[in-house]
Amino acid sequence: xxxxxxxxxVVGIRGPLMIIRSDGRLGYEELVEIEVAGGERRLGRVLQxxxxxxxxxxxxGTQGIATNNVKVKFIGKPLELPVSNELLGRVFxxxxxxxxxxxxxxxxxxxxINGLVLNPYKREYPDEFIQTxxxxxxxxxxxxxxxxxxxxxxxxxxxxxxxxxxxxxxxxARGEEFAVVFAAIGVPADTAxxxxxxxxxxxxxxxxxxFLNLAEDPAVERIVTPRVALTAAEYLAFEEGMHVLAIxxxxxxxxxxxREISILRDxxxxxxxxxxxxxxxxxxxFERSGRITGKKGSLTQLPILxxxxxxxxxxxxxxxxxxxxxxxxxxKDLYHKGVYPPVNVLMSLSxxxxxxxxxxxxxxxxxxxxxxxxxxxxxxxxxxxLAEIVGEEGVPESSKKYLAFAERFERxxxxxxxxxxxxxxxxxxxxxxxxSTLPESELVNIxxxxxxxxxxxxxxxxxx
Length: 464
Known about the structure:
Layout: E1 5-7, E2 10-14, E3 17-21, E4 30-36, E5 41-49, E6 53-58, E7 70-78, E8 80-83, E9 90-93, E10 109-112, E11 123-124, E12 129-130, H1 135-140, E13 143-144, E14 151-153, H2 159-170, E15 178-187, H3 189-202, E16 208-214, H4 225-238, E17 243-249, H5 251-264, H6 278-286, E18 290-292, E19 298-306, H7 315-323, E20 326-329, H8 332-336, E21 349-350, H9 353-356, H10 366-390, H11 397-414, H12 424-435, H13 448-454, H14 456-462
Helix pairs in contact: 2-3, 6-7, 10-11, 10-12, 11-12
């Protein structure tokens, strides 16, 4: 990196990008301070540095800037975030500047927002269960400390309510150091106010850090927001020893901002106009999670993205699924039936669940009950499809119990109140009660030992 140097020769402006003459001493990602006429100051970073020209990404946008009324100062270091435990309970904008009327937190040190360099050998395999209080997640799509588990949503679906519920409930009644870092990326102002209000009302804001990038803010700022948020999360997890849950919404807005910048840079587009490095860029965000040997804390990610046109093969959800360890997919059909949260369990999975549940972690019947619910619900969907063709009266009598099971599974197990917090014992007991709709002979995924220990509800159902 260069030292602090001032330049004033601006060659051109294109969207949020500024092209400036350079002497070749600039560094990639170097922080830039831009002073326009009237003394207004804006921040940016070096996006491309050559021997004669440099491209600067202006976070607040270039509106009102002319090539003859601007002075650019290169700071000589990348954008950094002051970090300390004073971050907790605070609300910031997408660049890490306070929005709560309080002064900037006093940092013990400043951390590069591009993240820590982690030795892969030092990573610990995630195997500890996180209780979110949401039955369909805890029971069938268990979230594990250090995991990255995205929520795939569609327009009009309640992913915001789910995110707020998980953030609230994950900070309640824990005898350990637990925190939530919440990053809103390109969301409407009312959505940002909803998140802030929910955490304030529940008292969870005391254990949370909010970074709010609004839809009205410049799109280029969205490139920075998740990185600033994850820098705060890394500090709290790996320096303060906290178990941190980072919720990032909406990552689709991040991808759109990345595409916009790529087009302005005249880069060769890939699928649907997105840059060819979209996978790599998303990985630099999602891989900032996990556990480190010798460190007490952990960093778990719950990214949320809305699928354009509800297309799960769209580049953003498609590439996200390759990087992360599973996905939670929301269903419009369930939503229109009044089921909340409307999770399509047959399209969802948590690849690390098997290592974080069971005896000594949740309950010994947990994985078997989850497998049985999957198996039975899949069969029930086949019976439903048949009933739509031949009518329910045309369905064999032996299969009608699966229709009743599916109804109870959706209404009693998946469905729960937005402010209902279920512990894992309650979740598994509800699962057993729903499974009592089926004959014992159909429970092929559950061992005889667990049937003997936990199937009281089924035996009671079988009595004349």
